[in-house]
Model the fold of this input.
Amino acid sequence: MSDLASFFLTYQSLFSFIGLNSLLALSVYCTLCCGQLSLANAGFMAIGAYAGALLTQNAHAPYALALLAGALVPALVAVPLGLPVLRLRGVYLAIATVGFGEVVRLGFVNWSYTNGALGLVAIPQKTQPWMIWLALAVVMFALARLRGSRAGYALEAIREDEPAARSMGIPSTRYKLSMFVAGAAIAGLSGALEAHLTYMVAPNGYGFSRAVDMLVYAVVGGDAVFYGPVAGAAFLTVLPEALRGAARTLGLSPGPLRMFVNGAILLGVILFLPNGIVSLPRTLRALRLRKASRAALG
Amino acid sequence: MLLSVEELERSFGGVRALDGAAVQVARGEVHGLIGPNGAGKTTLLNVVSGLFPPTRGRILLGGDRIDGLPPHRIASLGITRTYQNIRLFPGLTALENVMVGAHLVRPGDTLRRMFFLPSARADEARARDAALQLLSRVGLRERAHDRVSGLSYGDQRRVEIARALASSPRLVLLDEPTAGMNAAEVQAVAAVIRQVATQGQSVLLVEHNVQLVMQVCDRITVLNFGKVIAHGEPAYVAGHPEVIAAYLGTAA
Amino acid sequence: MWQQAINGVFLGAIYALFAVGYALVFGVLDILNLAHQAVFTVSAFVALAFVAGGSMPLAIAMPVALLAAGLIGIGLERVAFRPLRGRSDSNISGLISSLAAATILEAVALQIWGPDVRRFPQGTFPDKPLSVLGATVSALQLTIIAVSVALMAALTALLRATRLGRQIRAVAESPRAARILGVDVDRVIAWSFFLSSALGGAAGVLFGVAFNSVSPDMGRSVELKGLAVIILGGMGSIAGAVIAGFALGLLEVLTVVQLGSSWRDAVSFGVLFLVLLVRPSGLLGKAAIREA
Done:
């Protein structure tokens, strides 16, 4: 028992980051599950992080309030942003959300109140691991219960064929906006949680590459079910740690090796395992069945 | 008169797909819409279902104007449809497809499910039963849990019909529902169509299978080049010289 | 005033050259190739390697780098895009696939050349300041503008006057129709990627030379500007990319002068949003949904 406890203590921060990255991946899942490719969540994360940090630092607000603001402020921003932007199809939506993320980042870089590019430091370290896990559990619970509900069916229909879904009376814009706002709230909450864990926020930590990371967690894990993104986030958060040793033995720098492996895994998943690593058991089983039936037929 | 389409015009670029088309469908009527390829039949369905607005003309449902309304509004007013090139949700099973179709008649249950309220479970069970019943009506109960992408075209079309009926619409638009079906399947669909009408719902049926149309429809409208060239009872239309000419012309 | 104009044209020429590559691939495949910026970067490094390591004059190193870029483009198409061709969600999966390829290319560049900014050796290019219409311009800037314009003109000529160009335009219009007419669609797509990547690589070399700075992350900033350019110009339109590239370059320079340098990037994204809200198809883009 004490071995388990010491194991958790040593890797506590790793587990916390797995939790945070899982939340971020799920925030992207919110839009992916109704067919929207949105890269806006790094921007929403930044807004939530700054909102939370400013409240605890400058207003000395209780932490719960800071977290609430971290979730609500991005959600409020998401509404007027989402209404025009969700009308755009596929790639245009993705680009618009990238643009939004850049505008947010540049806004914070140029805002002297928050120290511009240097950001905020010495944020009180108020995040406990249990908070991250609680948030993750609640989000996963909500998404799990959503499946099988009328809204859950509607979201899947919108993802598969939005015009056909609309012709069945499904008000697709309303649903897409709701998921967009939900994703923003989750990303913002994660931002606030992370800010009070790493005790600093800086605009360049919430740029295009952050947005891409979140998307990659969700896609690699599997964006067809709610636990996929969590698996992806866990896998890709642990991977760099595991690769550190490998880099040394291979004589490569750890940074490039990690990038390379990330890219290779993403490519492999999108080409061969489009439903993510959670679909691996199913795919292997299907391959085995096919091989067996081929053998049986001689 | 449930559906009244008046002087409908719709152009795409320079092409006039609909040129003053008109159709009247009464409550509980099965109304056929036939004509050679390119006559504008599918375009008419697309305009009625709200996929795009007419360039000119009016569409009235139960006396209220619906032209120009968005598709989900038109659906909520009681018009559903199937598609010529089948637009089922490929990643979902037959049952799930039909359950999506029931969106308008299923109460929202997201919040209740969060608290595991029994009324939510009851609603879901009710929706599931209704969907299974619809699949039975079209003869596909055994395929309920199969993914639709693995079904034959004929089966897919029948699932699409079940899906269109799931919200108990006032009017169902069927776009070539029997294409690719064998004789037995066609008769099964014919039976479903007649049954729907006896329950007081209306059907606007676009079809190339003229025999089926003669068999199942109360009245027929014939389109050619976006205009109505004849309308009335099946016997009258079948003997109409312009109709015969239009079909003979394209048979060549 | 002329000074700003020249600076704007200079910056715009590089943006335009880069964006044209995006537009070409999007026009033909309906996919946004986010690996374009990685080719941009790698090509700059290749040129640098030949100039610094091989003592090759830039005039020779550049075509070599372009060739390398073009070949990488062909490889990209074969590995990351072709397998996705039949899929229903091919534009989203293509985007993600290109992201993956970009990461791999960047990782390789980072491993080989390290994260630090590198510079071209002294005397690689002429640095003579000239006076044109009362503005100070360096011979380098003029050369870069001339090379960019020449390359874009060459592409336009190719598309308009050669058989390959006609075939590319046919495939961009409708791959199915083109195939029926006997066009080898696979070959045309491969050529499109070759040309697109060669141009992107050219932009990379010119950018590296213009600012005398080559680093593994140089593609990142241009990538996002490039998106603004093709949105403004219209996603599949090469002429649009050219016009919008120059326009954005001028706009950026003017913004720095009027509002200060911290606003320079904001202008691109402001334009991006405005266009997407008001007229998503941009100046010259395809509005309709493409046929299969």
About this structure: The longest strand of chain A covers residues 120-121. The interface with chain B takes residues 141-142, 145-146, 148-151, 153-154, 156-157, 160-161, 163-172, 224 of chain A (CB under 8 Å).
